[in-house]
Specification:
Elements (H helix, E strand, L loop, with lengths): L25 H14 L3 H21 L5 H12 L6 H14 L2
Helix pairs in contact: 1-2
Length: 102
Protein backbone atom coordinates (compact mmCIF):
# COMPACT_ATOMS: atom_id res chain seq x y z
CA UNK A 1 0.00 0.00 0.00
CA UNK A 2 1.48 3.42 -0.92
CA UNK A 3 2.51 5.55 2.01
CA UNK A 4 0.60 8.79 2.38
CA UNK A 5 2.39 11.84 3.67
CA UNK A 6 0.83 14.89 5.23
CA UNK A 7 1.53 18.44 4.25
CA UNK A 8 3.99 20.21 6.49
CA UNK A 9 2.90 23.67 5.36
CA UNK A 10 -0.84 23.60 4.68
CA UNK A 11 -2.30 26.39 2.60
CA UNK A 12 -4.66 28.71 4.45
CA UNK A 13 -8.32 27.82 3.94
CA UNK A 14 -10.08 30.39 1.81
CA UNK A 15 -13.31 30.33 -0.11
CA UNK A 16 -12.67 29.39 -3.70
CA UNK A 17 -15.11 30.90 -6.16
CA UNK A 18 -13.24 30.99 -9.48
CA UNK A 19 -13.03 27.92 -11.68
CA UNK A 20 -10.17 26.74 -13.89
CA UNK A 21 -10.46 23.90 -16.36
CA UNK A 22 -7.82 22.17 -18.45
CA UNK A 23 -7.62 19.12 -20.65
CA UNK A 24 -4.51 17.01 -20.22
CA UNK A 25 -3.33 13.62 -21.43
CA UNK A 26 -3.96 10.51 -19.37
CA UNK A 27 -0.23 10.24 -18.80
CA UNK A 28 -0.01 13.79 -17.46
CA UNK A 29 -2.99 13.15 -15.19
CA UNK A 30 -1.33 10.02 -13.83
CA UNK A 31 1.79 12.00 -12.94
CA UNK A 32 -0.26 14.79 -11.35
CA UNK A 33 -2.26 12.25 -9.32
CA UNK A 34 0.93 10.55 -8.16
CA UNK A 35 2.53 13.87 -7.16
CA UNK A 36 -0.62 14.93 -5.31
CA UNK A 37 -0.70 11.60 -3.51
CA UNK A 38 2.95 11.95 -2.49
CA UNK A 39 2.20 15.36 -0.97
CA UNK A 40 -0.99 14.17 0.66
CA UNK A 41 -3.14 16.59 -1.31
CA UNK A 42 -6.13 16.33 -3.56
CA UNK A 43 -5.43 16.65 -7.26
CA UNK A 44 -7.25 19.97 -7.24
CA UNK A 45 -5.16 21.35 -4.35
CA UNK A 46 -1.97 20.11 -5.96
CA UNK A 47 -2.79 21.68 -9.34
CA UNK A 48 -3.81 25.01 -7.79
CA UNK A 49 -0.65 25.18 -5.67
CA UNK A 50 1.58 24.25 -8.61
CA UNK A 51 -0.09 26.80 -10.87
CA UNK A 52 0.19 29.55 -8.25
CA UNK A 53 3.86 28.74 -7.66
CA UNK A 54 4.64 28.79 -11.38
CA UNK A 55 2.69 32.03 -11.86
CA UNK A 56 4.44 33.74 -8.93
CA UNK A 57 7.84 32.64 -10.25
CA UNK A 58 7.03 34.05 -13.68
CA UNK A 59 5.86 37.38 -12.26
CA UNK A 60 8.85 37.63 -9.91
CA UNK A 61 11.31 36.96 -12.72
CA UNK A 62 9.91 39.90 -14.67
CA UNK A 63 9.65 42.29 -11.70
CA UNK A 64 13.12 41.78 -10.24
CA UNK A 65 15.98 43.48 -12.01
CA UNK A 66 19.20 41.48 -11.97
CA UNK A 67 22.46 43.25 -12.70
CA UNK A 68 26.04 42.10 -12.94
CA UNK A 69 28.41 43.35 -10.25
CA UNK A 70 29.83 45.91 -12.69
CA UNK A 71 26.36 47.15 -13.67
CA UNK A 72 25.38 47.40 -9.98
CA UNK A 73 28.40 49.55 -9.24
CA UNK A 74 27.69 51.78 -12.23
CA UNK A 75 24.04 52.12 -11.21
CA UNK A 76 24.94 53.14 -7.66
CA UNK A 77 27.62 55.55 -8.89
CA UNK A 78 25.05 57.29 -11.11
CA UNK A 79 22.56 57.47 -8.25
CA UNK A 80 25.14 58.99 -5.91
CA UNK A 81 26.65 61.31 -8.54
CA UNK A 82 24.00 61.98 -11.18
CA UNK A 83 24.99 63.83 -14.35
CA UNK A 84 23.84 67.42 -14.79
CA UNK A 85 20.43 67.73 -16.46
CA UNK A 86 20.57 68.01 -20.24
CA UNK A 87 19.06 71.14 -21.83
CA UNK A 88 16.02 69.18 -23.04
CA UNK A 89 15.32 67.98 -19.49
CA UNK A 90 15.62 71.53 -18.17
CA UNK A 91 13.09 72.71 -20.78
CA UNK A 92 10.74 69.89 -19.82
CA UNK A 93 10.94 70.91 -16.16
CA UNK A 94 10.19 74.51 -17.12
CA UNK A 95 7.15 73.44 -19.16
CA UNK A 96 5.96 71.25 -16.28
CA UNK A 97 6.28 74.13 -13.81
CA UNK A 98 4.41 76.46 -16.18
CA UNK A 99 1.56 73.95 -16.54
CA UNK A 100 1.32 72.60 -12.98
CA UNK A 101 3.27 75.00 -10.76
CA UNK A 102 6.02 74.04 -8.34
Amino acid sequence: MPQRTTRTNPAPRTTRVARLEARITREALAVVRRAAQIQGRSVSDFVVAAAQEAAQKTVTEIEIMRLSREAQEQFVALLLNPPKPAPALKRAFERHRAMFGE
